[in-house]
Task: structure prediction
Amino acid sequence: MSTIISKTKNDPVALKTFFSSRILKRKKLSKQSSSRATYLLTMDLSNFTGEFLEGDAFSIKPVNDPLIIKDILSILKLDGQEIVKHPKTEGSLPLYKFLQTEANLGKVSSKLLTLLTKSQSETQNLLQTLCKEENKFEKKAFLASHDVLSLLETSVPKKVSPQEFTETLLPLLPRFYSCASSHTKQSDSVDFLISTFEYKTQGSLRKGLSSDFLCHRAQISDGTIDMQLHKNTRFQLPTDSSTPIIMIGPGTGVAPFRAFVQKRIKQNASKNWLFFGERNRVSDFYFEDEWNFYVNDNNLKLSVAFSRDQEQKIYVQDKLYEQRKEFLKWLDNGAIIYICGDAKKMEKDVKKTIIRIFQEELSLSEKNALLHFKDLYSKKRYVTDVY
Ligand SMILES: Cc1cc2nc3c(=O)[nH]c(=O)nc-3n(C[C@H](O)[C@H](O)[C@H](O)COP(=O)(O)OP(=O)(O)OC[C@H]3O[C@@H](n4cnc5c(N)ncnc54)[C@H](O)[C@@H]3O)c2cc1C
Ligand SMILES: NC(=O)c1ccc[n+]([C@@H]2O[C@H](COP(=O)([O-])OP(=O)(O)OC[C@H]3O[C@@H](n4cnc5c(N)ncnc54)[C@H](OP(=O)(O)O)[C@@H]3O)[C@@H](O)[C@H]2O)c1
Result:
């Protein structure tokens, strides 16, 4: 295992190296009727020597699905015991181990395609055509619609050397997870909120690699998981705890806000407003009891949007728009807006809604509303952690 642990407290090297962790607890937060499963994991930090803050994330090294590795080895007529040289580190290891922890089996490289054009498979001609310069768009689309297993299934190679195969695989990259607990609440462990999902590749069902590994395949308390801290200096709580904060976090985007609220309660900071959104209230209202506890103590203002509880979708930005006058009051009082979750659509739509509120409520032209937004942004009063 590639575990390097520096024991020096606050040593920047310690923050950049992997340490070994394990899952202490795993609880399904979504109810049985939910259209997807979301879990709360508690990860062991007893080997971690750095310090994390609310807003930081950890990355983990996922492990590939043994069933997929078995199918790949079977197509290649290899048993996995073959010793290969790691293309990056040059260290020797069994092919099985390489496929387990080092190779990205979800994405196909051009190199693998080229290797298969020489493998005398039935689809050799198709692959050779795809590799011609004039077909670069078709090749790109082909690569994007296959993973390593689906490619090998459609063009079973006659013979491939384990080392050559190894050298065509892309590296397996770590996955990030936001800290969903504050170190002031628990210092020897950290919580993650993780959503699982399935998708199809060439008609076959696949699971998200890391989410499936952490939520289903990894053993609890047993085995080690390599983890690394990622500081997120942009996405931190204000040093002055009297500053109001507005948190917008649909889906797993709510994770860092659980840590934020835990810390704010310790600081006796009660100006906290959370916008949470998910699909259905009955099945996907993560941390409902915790939020309600804070609401009852007047430490949290909560606005929720359950998108699939009615015919027409309702999203967090619709709730924000509904409460636009109150939102502007909070901004007048110096509030910082934090947004976490989906980068592709959600964050852009929330931003549009904020600009619309400025236009309508402050009677600003579109240009001036945008300038007003940019002013907030430059003053670090609109901060995002989106993925
Ligand atoms: C800073 C940061 C913080 C993050 N924090 C969290 C967090 O707190 N909780 C969390 O769950 N995730 C979080 N993520 C996302 C996380 O790192 C992984 O990307 C996520 O778990 C999916 O990884 P995977 O290996 O399971 O899926 P992969 O195997 O990498 O995904 C396979 C395919 O599915 C698609 N896909 C990815 N996600 C989904 C999805 N949700 N639904 C449908 N298709 C999808 C991908 O586009 C890809 O084509 C964070 C990411 C970043 C960058
Ligand atoms: N195919 C993919 O690559 C894919 C697919 C899904 C998620 N993801 C990624 O996974 C991460 C987190 O996803 P998640 O599962 O925690 O939550 P999520 O998919 O972002 O969903 C959480 C809630 O946000 C709603 N939502 C959808 N579009 C929105 C928008 N434009 N504005 C505001 N709210 C919106 C969803 O509603 P509805 O679902 O009812 O519309 C749902 O109620 C994100 O990075 C996301 O990009 C990737």
The chain has three domains: 18-50+179-230, 66-171, 245-386.
